[in-house]
Specification:
It is elongated, with a radius of gyration of 39 Å. The chain has 168 residues and is α+β, with helices and mostly antiparallel strands. Strands 1, 2, 3 and 4 form a 4-stranded antiparallel sheet that branches. The chain has a domain of 108 residues: Tetrahydropterin Synthase, Chain A (2-Layer Sandwich). The protein is built from 6 helices and 4 strands, in the order H-H-E-E-E-H-H-H-H-E. Helix 4 packs antiparallel against helix 6.
Length: 168
């Protein structure tokens, strides 16, 4: 008889619908979505954090001048031919640090001396090319950066610019 009751129960029980499975899946998705949203809002911060922007100071251009106040350098260039060649250059140092311009002014005699030495050791043929001029500018920038590093402990000079460059 017990076997008969079990057989009757099996016949009377309706097949389980997929409705319950869909409800369970939907509940799991909602719980996971809610948990993810909660985590995002709690871990994202309170919004009071400052966004720090790097502010670039305006460029300051300092004219490099000789002791007499002349804005140009005139140097004799080395040459393979028997001709005498000259370089005339007007130079400006670009910086953004407010400490650099006064330091350049203060150490101008040293800067002019080192630049004159550098220019007088240049070869006319090499400076006749664009690459030669760029290398000279790069070397002059490094020279000024080294002087500033020794004097005020920062490189300071962003680049050296030739505002006039004449060779003959």
């Amino acid at each position: 008889m017990a076997d008969k009751d079990k057989a009757d129960d099996a016949q009377e029980a309706p097949p389980k619908s997929k409705k319950m499975l869909i409800i369970i899946i939907a509940a799991v998705v909602v719980l996971l979505g809610g948990g993810g949203a909660g985590y995002f809002f709690l871990m994202a911060g309170d919004g009071e954090e400052e966004i720090v922007e790097e502010v670039r100071l305006p460029a300051v251009y300092t004219k490099i001048r000789t002791k007499s106040g002349r804005p140009m350098f005139v140097s004799t260039l080395l040459s393979d031919d028997d001709k005498t060649h000259y370089l005339q250059a007007y130079i400006v140092a670009k910086s953004r640090d407010p400490k650099v311009a006064p330091a350049l002014e203060k150490h101008m005699p040293l800067i002019v001396s080192k630049l004159n030495t550098m220019f007088s050791t240049q070869e006319f043929a090499k400076l006749s090319t664009l690459e030669g001029k760029q290398n000279l500018r790069s070397d002059a920038t490094k020279l000024l950066q080294n002087i500033m590093l020794q004097r005020i402990d920062i490189k300071g000079v962003e680049e050296v610019l030739f505002t006039n460059f004449v060779m003959q």
